[in-house]
Amino acid sequence: MTGGISPHPINATPEIQEITNTVKEQLEKKLGTNYSIFQAISYKKQLVNGMNYFIKVKTDNGYDHIRVYEAFKGTPNLVSVQQHKSLEDDITYF
Q: What is the pTM of this model?
């Protein structure tokens, strides 16, 4: 059953870091930058026809929130990004 975004952030797992690593190059291309620091911190998720992951990522420039869509039998793809976030900023739907 599909639904809203999970209410509370979950600490990033190795699986979430792997998803984050998969879209790193997509994000770097989109923003025209290269990251030496790219660490998933926490995330929320939303079940759709696949899974949306809303991931807080620590980067060289602070924190970004990225939205990644992964089809049930597909490859994760970057959907959007919110830059200039802080560690304290809540992860919300975007």
A: 0.92
